[in-house]
Specification:
Elements lengths: L3 H15 L35 H5 L4 E8 L6 E8 L19 E4 L2 E2 L5 H5 L7 E2 L12 E9 L1 H16 L11 H11 L11 H12 L1
Helix pairs in contact: 4-5
């Protein structure tokens, strides 16, 4: 049997390899790190189903949730974007490919700190988390995979209520036991989707989720 210190080191390394989201550098875009600048802040969109715009009223499913993976210098990050489709039936972004905050909201699980220390601890012990946007989530340039589901007004109302319930439950983040992909699994399961292994790297996780449900 391996000595106890060596067993601990092996466990830590395995956790790092299997985790869905982590961080490696304080001066670069991290995977799952909270937003660090006002310019990248995406204000959560208020849910407003009673809209008068003809394009939304005429669409049978004018709302959406999109499960996304994005790149980073480490493993990447899994999260969800939800809100109202634009007049062309697309997820609304501006000319730079950045989500329009008045029409979208981001939810994803990540440690509640801009420091790398909670990420390191989170490979061994659960750490406090946040469930909002993180650096890079709002920019299409960093997206590596996505799976979109269009929703009716009633379906969207139920989804938003479920996400609020998840957010209010104060989940903790752990790289293996409950990571960003496991959080997305909870949202997908509510929608009746087949869930997949949350220990897959984010891009593989999203692509596997899409294959499992199409």
């Amino acid at each position: 049997m391996l000595p106890k210190p060596l067993r601990f080191a092996v466990l830590f390394l395995l956790g790092g390899l299997l985790a869905g989201c982590s961080s490696t550098g304080s001066n670069t875009m991290t995977s799952g790190a909270p937003l660090t600048s006002a310019s990248s802040l995406v204000t959560p969109a208020a849910f407003a189903p009673a809209v008068e715009e003809s394009d939304v009223v005429q669409r049978a499913k004018p709302y959406f949730v999109e499960f996304r993976a994005r790149s980073a210098l480490s493993y990447g990050h899994t999260f969800a974007v939800f809100g109202r489709l634009d007049q062309n039936g697309h997820v609304p972004v501006d000319a730079n490919g950045v989500l329009i905050p008045s029409m979208t909201e981001i939810t994803g699980l990540h440690p509640a700190s801009t420091s790398n220390i909670p990420y390191t601890i989170g490979h061994v012990l659960p750490v406090p988390s946040e469930t909002g946007p993180s650096d890079g989530d709002s920019e299409n340039a960093y997206m590596t995979a996505y799976y979109r589901i269009e929703l009716t007004e009633a379906e969207y109302r139920g989804l938003v209520a479920h996400i609020r319930k998840l957010q209010n439950s104060s989940p903790v983040w752990h790289a293996v036991l409950y990571n960003c992909s496991a959080y997305v699994n909870d949202i997908a399961e509510y929608l009746g989707l087949k869930t997949v292994n949350p220990l897959l790297f984010p891009e593989n996780y999203i692509n596997s989720l899409k294959r499992a449900n199409t």
